[in-house]
Amino acid sequence: MIEAMFEGLTGIFVWPAFGLLLLGILIGWFVGLLPGIGSIVALALMIPFTFNMSPIEAFSFLLGMFVVTTNAGEITAILFGVPGEATTAATILDGHPMTKKGEAGRAMGASLMSSIIGAIIGAATLAALIPVVRPLVLSFAAPELFALTILGVTFIASLSGDNLFKGVLMAGFGFMLTAVGQDGQSGVLRYTFGQLYLWDGIGLIPVAVGMFAVPEIMDLFVRGTSLAEAKVGKLGGVMEGVKDAFRHIGLVVRAGAMSAFIGLIPGLGGAVAQWVTYGHAVQSAKDKSMFGHGDVRGVLAPGASSNAKEGGALVPTVAFGVPGSLAMAILLGAFLIVGLQPGPNMLEENLHVTWSLVFIVLFATFISCGLAFLFLGQMVKITYVKGTILIPFLTLLIWMGAYTATNNFGDLVSVFLFGMLGFILVKLDWPRPPLILGLVLGGLTEKYLFIATQRYGIMLFARPVVIVVLILTLAALVYSVMQAKSMRKERLRREQVQREALDA
Across residues 185-202, what is the average pLDDT? Predict the structure, then answer.
């Protein structure tokens, strides 16, 4: 085991593997900064270039690029309120408000540092669980996955602020959107209204970009100012964000561990991980008043999940050829192209390649974040540029990102419609995150419920893991409702004090 570990480590630093790792990191940065293209498309485009590479060279290139795209996507989410990746939408909720307060450097420092810690957790998970993961992952069938999606739904309360009713309605609307398109189980067309574009359903990227990015650009146009409404000196500095990651190290570690576990379960994916960890950050906080208004904890939790989940998702992919996500399914194809067979063979004859995957995740994160820290000071200056100069660039970025996701004109229409809806919701003070969470979890919930009922019937609720998860779900729901009532009472009390002060 130790010999294979060192062989995997040294294999990365042999030319041309290390050069390919750096090239993958460079491509990953450009892909991550352009919303809509995403790591999935980039992986699919780059796989043909790996035909004549050795296994370690191929994964240095592909996995290095994949890991970095999320880190780059976090930066566009923080600076511009535009999710560079579908898995970075949760970062917008607090990252972009921090930019408006002049704390863009602090937000990006916190995000990058938590990403590094998350990568360490994910790599450690991959290293520790590869020999023992098979029984764990195989114990999760459709009933357990359905129960986990229901547990994820309880985080709607955390994302709704002090108005649970509005949050539930928005999440319900998100669930309704997942019903649009061709039913994955029966093939029946639902709510397509004769439009071919709707056959594939409503995509997460146009909805997320429209709901969060378009209202921010409209607000920037109305204000006529720069992205940052104030200059904050040292408090807005990058190192302050790095310190925040260690001030809240417990939250960062918990978010990383949760994301690694979610990545471990095939079919859940990164979009679920970021919202679950953000919801946990809100639930576990004593003072929730700043969430959604620039709380650094709302940046740390999704930041930690970005790389931790990939370490977890690699485990079932390597251990027995079951991809933990869509990206892992594409990487599984790369395994076969370079002549590797996932499964016991990876843990015996190709153990050194397995270890190289651990180190690639780590070093790709370290190198990309290290380079980012060098240039963050310059990138923060963008937030002080006048909005009238930035708006055309941001608008082009949004339309280009939405179109390149599927190369379908319908996505541009979706961005416009959901952008208008997002602007209205902001003005009416309705929460937007529950809608995205409903859209992420709705399709998974329906799929696993269908499979579980067809296979197990009512007995799906008698399985031990399902019972435990549903008990946790009920406890989380009760706690969330109590917290929402407490927040509402506190808000009403503050308003009463303010009115009394004005009357006096």
Answer: 83
How many CB atoms lie under 10 A from the CB of residue 219? 16
Token pair listed for 458: 């009512």
DSSP state of 211: I
> At residue 371, does pLDDT exceed 70?
yes
- Report the SS3 class of residue 304: helix
Is there a contact between 315 and 134 (Cβ–Cβ < 8 Å)?
no
Residue 235: per-residue pLDDT: 44
Render pLDDT for 273-286 as a digit per residue (tens, 0 to 9).
777 788 778 777 77
Residue 135 corresponds to which tokens in the numbers above?
A: 């029984």
The predicted model scores a pTM of 0.65
CB atoms within 10 A of CB 132: 10
Residue 200 Cα to chain centre, angstroms:
22
Concatenated DSSP letters of 72-109: HHHHHHHHHS--SSGGGHHHHHHHHHHHHTT-HHHHHH
Instruction: State the pLDDT confidence band at 38, using cuts at 50, 70 and 90.
Output: low
Identify the helix (H) or strand (E) that includes residue 448: helix 433-456
Average pLDDT, stretch 355-363?
81
- Helix and strand tally (H, E) in the chain? 22, 2
Query: ∠ CA 214-283-150 to the nearest 5 degrees?
Result: 80
**Torsions phi, psi of 23, nearest 5?**
-65, -40
User: Are the C-beta atoms of residues 350 and 335 closer than 8 Å to each other?
Assistant: no
> Is the predicted pLDDT of residue 231 greater than 60, yes or no?
no
Give the amino acid at 388.
T
CB-CB contact of 188 with 209 (8 Å): no
Residues 39, 40, 41, 45, Cα dihedral to 10°: 90
Tokens of 303: 């930041």
Sequence-distant (6+) residues with CB within 8 A of 435 are 170, 171, 173, 174, 177, 207, 211
- CA separation for the pair 333, 110 (Å, rounded): 34
- What residue numbers bound the domain in which 69 lies? 2-503
Inter-axis angle of helices 55-80 and 297-320, nearest 10: 160
3-state class of 124 per DSSP? helix
Q: How many domains would you assign to the chain?
A: 1
Amino acid present at 315: V
User: Given the DSSP bridges, would you call strands 189-190 and 181-182 parallel, antiparallel or unpaired?
Assistant: antiparallel
